[in-house]
Amino acid sequence: xxxxxxxxxxxxxxxxxxxxxxxxxxxxxxxxxxxxxxxxxxxxxxxxxxxxxxxxxxxxxxxxxxxxxxxxxxxxxxxxxxxxxxxxxxxxxxxxxxxxxxxxxxxxxxxxxxxxxxxxxxxxxxxxxxxxxxxxxxxxxxxxxxxxxxxxxxxxxxxxxxxxxxxxxxxxxxxxxxxxxxxxxxxxxxxxxxxxxxxxxxxxxxxxxxxxxxxxxxxxxxxxxxxxxxxxxxxxxxxxxxxxxxxxxxxxxxxxxxxxxxxxxxxxxxxxxxxxxxxxxxxxxxxxxxxxxxxxxxxxxxxxxxxxxxxxxxxxxxxxxxxxxxxxxxxxxxxxxxxxxxxxxxxxxxxxxxxxxxxxxxxxxxxxxxxxxxxxxxxxxxxxxxxxxxxxxxxxxxxxxxxxxxxxxxxxxxxxxxxxxxxxxxxxxxxxxxxxxxxxxxxxxxxxxxxxxxxxx
Amino acid sequence: xxxxxxxxxxxxxxxxxxxxxxxxxxxxxxxxxxxxxxxxxxxxxxxxxxxxxxxxxxxxxxxxxxxxxxxxxxxxxxxxxxxxxxxxxxxxxxxxxxxxxxxxxxxxxxxxxxxxxxxxxxxxxxxxxxxxxxxxxxxxxxxxxxxxxxxxxxxxxxxxxxxxxxxxxxxxxxxxxxxxxxxxxxxxxxxxxxxxxxxxxxxxxxxxxxxxxxxxxxxxxxxxxxxxxxxxxxxxxxxxxxxxxxxxxxxxxxxxxxxxxxxxxxxxxxxxxxxxxxxxxxxxxxxxxxxxxxxxxxxxxxxxxxxxxxxxxxxx
Lengths: 457, 316
Fold this sequence. Notes:
heterodimer, A: alpha+beta, CBS-domain, Heat Shock Protein 90, 3 domains, five-stranded mixed beta sheet, disordered C terminus, B: alpha/beta, Rossmann fold, five-stranded parallel beta sheet, 11 helices, 12 strands, globular
C-alpha cells in the first residue's frame, strides 16, 4: 500500500448508526479529534454509511428545541449519506483525483478511508490532499524542467547530426567533382611522362645522326644504321602528331587543375572561416558559391536560369546564408522527378528587403505538408535520407537575421521559395515567433506575384 | 599501320569528355576505342558490333552507370564490364555486382598501370568468350548458353559459412530440394567440406566475430574458379565490397537480413551460373581475380595454409 496515503489517514473511532443525536453531540464536545471536521458513521459490518460534520450539527442545534425534539433520534437520520469514500488500496493519484473532483465548497467535511475489504479505516483531512497535490506539482515541474533540458541537449545533438549529414552529402559530391578531374589530370601527366621518354629516345637518335653527319670519320654504313634506328622509332611513334596530342593532354590537365582549385576556393568561401560572422555581404556572390558547391546535385538534373537584379549588400553571416541557399537548392533538385528540370534563381529588392527567389519545376508540395514544412523533424524523405531539420534550421537562421522565408507551391507544377533579408541591420535581432507564426504566407499570395515555371515540353 | 579490325574494341562511357579523351589516348594503340556520353547510345553500340570491354562512369545525366552495364550485360553478355567512378554510394556498388555483374570496380583517380592491366585482362577474357561463342554458333548451339548435352551430374551442393542460425534458415529456404546444403560454422569446417563434397555455391558472411573471411573468399576464388560466391552480410563497408569484387569476384551481395524472395533468386542464379562455368570452362577466366597486394592468407592456421598450398595458392 502506498505510504503517502497512510500518512493522510487519521484513524478516528467512528459513530454507529443507532447512536442518538444527543450522544453524538457529547462525542463532539468531548473532543480528541480537533483536526477533523466530521465523524464517520458505520454499520454493523463496520462499513461507512455516512458522515456527520460539526457544521451540520451546529446548524441543527441552533434551532430552538431541536435537542428536545430530536435528541433521542438516531444519528443516521441527520448524517450526509453520500460522503467521499476512498480505498487505501487505490493509488495516490486516484485518491487525489477522487477527492478533488467530489469536493464541495465550503469544505465542511472530511473524506472516509476504507480498507481493501471496504471496512472503515479512518478519516482524511481534505487540506492534506491539497498539500499533497502541491507537493506533487512541484516534483512534476522539476521533472519537466529536467526533461526540457534533456530535450534541448538532444535537439542540439540532432542539429549537429543534421549538419554532419549535410556535410557528408556535400563531401561525397565534392569528392566526385574533384576525383573526376584528378582522374584525367593524373592519367594525362602519366601519359605525358611516357611520351617524354619516347621523345627522349627519338631526340637521342636524331642527335646521333647529326653527329654522324658532322663527323669526318663516319662510314656511310654507320650513317645508314643511324637512319634506320630513327626509322624504327618513327614506326611506333609519330612525334609530330603525338606532340600535338601532348598539347591537348596539357590543355585538359590545366583545365582540370583550374576546376579543382575552383572547387577548393568555393569550399573555402562556403565556410567563410576567414570572414566575420556578420558582414556586409553580396548575396549574389553567395548564390554563386552555393551553386558551385551544390553543383553535383544539380548538374545532371536541372538547367539553371539566373535573373539577377542588382541588390544592395546586406548585413548577414555569409556561411549561414550559404547553408540556407544550399539546403533550398538541394531540396529543389530532389523535388524534380523528370529530366526537364529547371531552376530559376532571381534576386530583387522589395521595400527594405533584399530578396532571393528559388523556383523549381518539380513535383510541388502537397497542401497537407506545406503547413509543417518548417517544423523540426518534419520529413517526407525515407529514413536515413533526411532528418527533417534542414528547413527548420534554415527558417531559424533567416528569422535570426530578421528576415523571412516563405514558399509557394503547386503540385505537379513546382515550388518557389523566397528568402528576404533586411537591407539595414534589424533593430531586434531575432524576430519573435509563435509556432503559428511559423506558417508561411499562403502560396497563392506568392503565386500571383509571378507564376511558377511551367514544365516545358 | 596496324589493321584496326584486328584490335579488340573498347567502349568508354562518361559524361566528362576529358575522361574519355584521356583514356582513349591511353588505349588507342591496343584497342579500337569508341566513346559516348550516353548510356542508350552505349547499349546500341554493343549491339551493332562486338565490343570486348566497356568502362562506364556511374554518375551520368541520362542513365546511371549501373543501368548502362545491366543493359550491356543483357545486350552483349560476353562484353566485360568495368565501372569507373569518382564516388559511388553503397547502393551503386551493390547494384554493380548484383545487376551489372561487373568484372572490376575502378575508382577515380585511377592508377594508369593498374587500369591498363585490368583492361588487358578483361579483353583477354572477352576474346575467349567471343571465340567460344562463335565456335558454339558454328556447331549450331545456342551461342550464349551452352546446351546441356552432357549427362546431368549430381546436383552441386551449397555451402554456408556462417555461425548465424538465421542465415542457415534463410539458405535452407532458398536451397532447391535436390541440392544438398552443407553448413560450416568456421573456415576449417568449410575447407573440409570443400575438399570432400561437390560444392557449387558458397554463401558466406565476410566476418565471423573478430575473424575476417575476406582473405579466404579471395583465396577460394583462386583455388576453385568454378565456385560461385554469394556474400551474405550486414556489414556495409564500401572499401571492403570493392575489394571483394576486384579480388574475390563475388557473384552476388545480399544484405542481412534482406528480402527472402530476392535471396531465393540469387541462389538460383548462382546455381545456374555455376552450371555455365562448368560447361564453359573458358568463362572461368572471367573470374581471374586481381592480384592482391597484401598477402591473402595472414593469420590462418597451418592446416588452412596447407589446404591452400595444395591448390597452388601462395600465402604471400
